[in-house]
Amino acid sequence: MVRIERSADLKPVHRRQAAVLALWRWRAPVLAFELDAEWGIDPAVLESLFQVAASPSGEQSDRAYRRAIADLCTAPLFMSEVDPDTVQLFQLETISSLLTFGELLDNPGTDLTDRVIEGSAGLANYLDDLVDGSFYPHPSEEAHREYLANLAGRAGERYFASRNFAAESAGHRALRALPDTAGLLDSTAGRELLALCEDFGEELVTTMQWLRATGH
């Protein structure tokens, strides 16, 4: 079971930004690894989706996002079956969340927002499963154990799920104080939130590289 911060108590503009932050945590894992050539996806299209999603909301950015989604959906990936490896599974799930964000533009309620947020939490939980099931010790195992030991009253949590939830909670707290007109890319507070997600994303990349090197 994944644990998330529900978006119902956020203003609509901040719900959208909460979904962007959930996506942004997985931006590095998607772009750091080469995409399967048979998918026919240009990484620049994915990067444009992340960038436009984080831009101030409005008719212009919504149109740009829809155009990029339309471009993405012409890729052979969407007309074939795939048998992904571990890293590719994370890439595909994040691409699916980018598509869900596109639906959110037309239906800006809590259901689709929470689906994107749950997607991030679910991937973090799955990564914990892979680490726990590995025959090899994680290179940062001691640091992870120390981090979890410092979580007062939250026994039984696992590292990546906990880190994802911490970033998510920090984002929700900051968004509540963010002016409605402030975007994520064009405000200091917004850029700090994106940087927090990027820090987590770098950890995800390092662990996924380790998983691939150890045979996952």
Any overview of this molecule?
By secondary structure, the chain is an all-alpha fold. It has one domain (12-213). The chain has helices at residues 12-24, 27-32, 43-54, 59-72, 86-106, 110-133, 141-149, 159-176, 188-213. The longest helix has 26 residues, at 188-213. The chain is globular.
Q: Gyration radius, to the nearest Å?
A: 17 Å
Number of discrete helical segments? 9
- Give the end-to-end Cα distance, rounded to a whole number of Å: 23 Å
Averaged pLDDT: 92
Name the shape in a single word.
globular
Strand content: under 5%
**Major β-sheet profile:** none
Portion in helices = 55-70%
* Class inferred from helices and paired strands: mainly alpha
Number of domains: 1
Any low-confidence stretches, pLDDT <50, length ≥5? none
Q: Topology as H/E string?
A: HHHHHHHHH
Summarize the structure.
The protein has 216 residues and is mostly helical. Helices cover 66% and strands 0% of the residues. It has one domain.
